[in-house]
Design brief:
The chain has 9 helices and 9 strands. By secondary structure, the protein is α/β, with parallel strands linked by helices. The strands form 2 sheets. Strands 1, 2, 3, 7, 8 and 9 form a 6-stranded parallel β-sheet that branches. Strands 4-5-6 form a 3-stranded parallel β-sheet, covered by helices on one side. Helix 7 links the parallel strand 7 and strand 8. The longest helix has 25 residues.
Length: 256
């Protein structure tokens, strides 16, 4: 009887449960990261849009903005409790990040100051670094490891889904247009990336940039691509949640 239970009903049940976990992990994912979020007003503007669409996003804000907008730490605390996510970006967009190999101390000081500010603001999961200027040198990699990052989120020339970054330490992101005059990729192009993501059960990081000022056109495009991704079968979730689902699959840290 015991053997029959172990080899029969239990085995069949565990196999079914395993399939459920696998299918959940394998669903395609879209993560929204707002880069350089400038103020509580900017944060709340995007949060209102995300709430309307029933999704959560991730914010990367430079902590020097706290000096201009002292209410931002309270905003961060409140939104983290609601499931929004804030990552480390740094204190400032210091130009020396673009030559980090020759300016290690300056870059590290900026990173550490940003980390300290975000900890004091109540951000709870600062294991992810959206690097200033998309910097991705070996020095940046060493700094990220030294200060306990799970990964770096960076930019590269061209548009790539993270499938192309499998096994590497840096995750790329594609961009929603920053202003009406400067479009990184068309809406149809973004839909094509979503289709590719769905076809490989992949993971796309969509970078928005509300700091540059959004128009009605930006909001419309944002709604269009989020709804398109949802209807295509993507789970839409903040970076930390997506990482926890995708880490076992892509295993970025092996080469980080």
């Amino acid at each position: 009887l015991v053997n029959n239970l172990v080899n029969g009903w239990f085995a069949d049940s565990f196999q079914k449960i395993g399939k459920l976990f696998k299918s959940a992990a394998d669903r395609p994912i879209l993560t929204i990261i707002d880069d350089d979020t400038p103020s509580s007003e900017g944060i709340n503007r995007l949060v209102g849009l995300c709430d309307e669409l029933g999704v959560k996003c991730t914010f990367a804000t430079l902590t020097r903005q706290f000096e201009l907008h002292p209410e931002m730490p309270d905003t961060i605390k409140a939104l983290e409790r609601r499931g929004y996510h804030f990552v480390i970006h740094g204190y400032s967009q210091h130009p020396k990040y673009q030559d980090a190999d020759n300016n290690v101390a300056i870059c590290e000081d900026d990173l550490v100051r940003g980390l300290q500010d975000m900890h004091q603001a109540g951000a709870m999961d600062l294991k992810y670094w959206v690097t200033p200027f998309g910097a991705q040198s070996d020095t940046m990699k060493r700094l990220a490891k030294k200060w306990g990052m799970n990964c770096m989120i960076t930019t590269k020339e061209g548009i790539e889904t993270t499938k192309a970054e499998q096994g590497k330490w840096a995750i790329t992101r594609c961009g929603l247009n920053r202003t009406d005059a400067e479009s990184d990729i068309t809406l149809e192009g973004l839909k094509g990336l979503v289709d590719e993501c769905v076809s490989i059960n992949g993971w796309i990081l969509l970078c928005t940039h509300i700091a540059n000022g959004w128009s009605d056109n930006n909001y419309s495009r944002f709604k269009d691509i989020v709804n398109y991704a949802k209807n295509a079968g993507c789970d839409i979730m903040p970076l930390n949640e997506a990482w926890n689902k995708r880490k076992p699959i892509y295993d970025f840290y092996e080469n980080f």
